[in-house]
Design brief:
Elements: H1 17-34, H2 42-51, E1 52-60, E2 67-68, H3 70-89, E3 94-102, E4 109-119, E5 125-137, E6 140-152, H4 164-174
Parallel strand pairs: 1-6
Antiparallel strand pairs: 1-2, 3-4, 4-5, 5-6
Helix pairs in contact: 2-3
Length: 175
């Protein structure tokens, strides 16, 4: 079964700058929220490719130097998404993400508040929140800054995941 794309390509939006950046932001955020990491990480990379400029710059309060260039940012995104996908698909981790738009008054800038909830099979939870500032040039994000990052609940461990079934399947295959 193939999954239909749930986002609109950013190139097809042509409105005045203020409305245009808000529309693109809503479309990008909806695509991120609707994607399902337990089904795969590839959709997130497709979203990134569709909405971010080749010369993207990403920064954060927790990182000293900004990361520049689509390939470098894509590599970091890949390294973040693959373990999440494995923990969700095989380890039973429940993952949900949501966002709230933050009003702004600069045409090419958008702000949003994000919440990532991770719930282990043990019932333990970890919630990560942050805010994102995006600067748009035409139909692409050229700058993204994460700030006000917070974590509620400790990091989840292997005790919070269910890899026992995967180990049993692997052992039965070997024997």
């Amino acid at each position: 079964m193939t999954k239909e794309q749930s986002f609109v390509a950013a190139d097809h939006i042509d409105l005045d700058p203020f409305i245009s950046s808000r529309t693109r932001e809503r479309t990008l955020n909806a695509a991120i929220v609707q994607a399902n990491i337990s089904e795969g990480f590839e959709e997130y990379l497709e979203i990134f490719d569709a909405f971010y400029a080749d010369d993207i710059e990403v920064s954060s309060e927790t990182v000293e130097e900004p990361i520049r260039g689509k390939e470098r940012v894509r590599s970091l995104l890949f390294n973040f998404l693959v373990p999440l996908h494995v923990m969700a698909e095989i380890g039973g981790l429940l993952i949900s993400i949501r966002q709230i738009a933050i009003p702004g008054d600069i045409a090419s800038e958008t702000h949003s508040a994000w919440t990532l909830d991770l719930v282990g099979v043990s019932g333990r939870t970890c919630t990560v929140t942050w805010r994102a500032l995006r600067k748009w040039s035409g139909s692409r994000v050229v700058y993204e800054h994460h700030y006000d990052e917070q974590q509620n609940g400790g990091p989840l461990t292997t005790d919070d995941l269910s890899f026992d079934g995967a180990k049993a399947d692997a052992l039965s295959t070997i024997q």
